[in-house]
Amino acid sequence: MILASDLPKLSRVEKLKLMELLWTDLASSADGLESPEWHRSEVLDAEKRYLAGEEQPVDWNVAKEQLRSGRR
Question: What are the pLDDT digits (tens) for 47-56?
Fold first, then answer.
């Protein structure tokens, strides 16, 4: 088993391979995973704002930067 204390010892390639293994495993059993109701509500609210012209799409790289800097 890999512990959090082991992560700094892994190379970037090893970390990416581990993430891929985890994602594949999680995705294979995703049928029992449901998004919480608040997530559905947020998506629907965003869609309403977009359709009303109150919200515009944001480039993914711009969105990541905004999230990282705490802006929205």
Answer: 999 999 999 9
